[in-house]
Amino acid sequence: MNATTPSAPPAEVDAPEAGWRRALKQSWLGALVAALLLWLLAGYLTGTLSLGFILANATIAGFLALAGAAQMVVISSGPGNFDLSLPYTITFGAYVMSAGLLGQDNIALSILLTLGAGALIGALNAGLIVLLRIPAIVATLASGYIIYSLIVAVQSSGFSRVGGMFESMLRYRIAGVSGALITVAVTLAVLAVILRRTVFGMQLHAFGQNGEAARLAGVRRGRIILLTFVISGVLSAWLGAMLATYQGGVSTDLGRSYLLGSVAAVVVGGTRISGGITSVIGTALGALVLTLTQSDLVLMKVSIGTQYAVQGLIVLGTVSFIAYRTRDSR
Question: I need a labelling partner for 54 at 20 to 30 A (CA). Which of 138, 222, 267, 284 fits?
């Protein structure tokens, strides 16, 4: 009477099916399918399905993905949070890298100086938001104008090509994959670990989903905002350093195209702009979709105005689809 019947072993047959179901629910799946379709379209337009074509676009998309990752971290901190200083931080980082303040041969310290400048810009943004209680959009817009004034003030100074081992590393290719793309991939992998495997990452997601509940659970708002914008500033400055080196020069409008592009990459990658959710791989795929879209439109000889319109429709359609899917799942 007291004997217990042995429990049935777990059904391992359902494990693959559960794995497929989880894969189908990934927010970045749509971006992956879109990227593949755009690659096939390019093959149809050119008459050949070239791996080199997608690798060349992946390098360009990698730079956009890095900007998107910086923007994604800020967006995840709560509804309405955007870093409008991002393009100016990118440009300022490029100028700091090209200035050679520590000597043209001292690339490592120049990179550290550039990253430090990005961290200071992020800390400035956080101070305006936390101490003065200014909304993130307004605070970053104001700091962006301040940074731009510094750029204008120093643009007439002497700047030279970075060159050296750093440039060789970014331009070197292994089986068609550029060193710049590998560098971006390593950077994004480190960011993914920070967001998924650290206490800060867990607190950031909790704070973005419900700031008041996170505060009651002991999450310090000031610390989260500070680290969030410092990471965004460091990633933006790092992108500026890479662009200045890879392109062999710098200009005052270097980062201009990355403001809207960074937000678009986050959205197309399937990340909700309401905050609390991050997807590094989704942002990278979103950047690839936008880059491939532009390349396909160029192959179709579409005007630049139409290219922007199509990209805007892609973003609008993605936002509408995510909103519909979110409402349908409730």
Answer: 267
The dihedral built from the CA positions of residue 316, 312, 276 and 36, taken in this order, carries a sign that is positive
Taking the C-alpha atoms of residue 284 and residue 269, their distance in angstroms, rounded to an integer, is 7
Residue 24 lies in a domain: no
Instruction: Look at residue 178 and give its three-state secondary structure.
Output: strand
Residue at 119 is within a domain: yes
- Tell me the C-alpha to C-alpha distance, in Å, between residue 125 and each of 114, 115, 230: 17, 15, 8
81-132 tens-digit pLDDT: 999 999 999 999 999 998 866 666 688 889 999 999 999 999 999 999 999 9
d(CA 207, CA 311): 31
Q: Are 270 and 59 in contact (CB under 8 A)?
A: no
DSSP letter for each residue of 55-123? HHHHHHHHHHHHHHHHHHHHHTTSTT---TTHHHHHHHHHHHHHHTTT-TT-HHHHHHHHHHHHHHHHH
CATH number where 292 lies: 1.10.3470
What's the domain count of the chain? 1
Strand partners, 174: 177
Q: In sequence order, which residues have a C-beta less than 8 Å from that of residue 107 and are 6 or more positions away?
A: 162, 164, 165, 166
Residue 93 lies in domain? 50-329
Q: Is residue 227 part of a domain?
A: yes
Residue 9 lies in a domain: no
| Residue 256 β-bridge partners | none
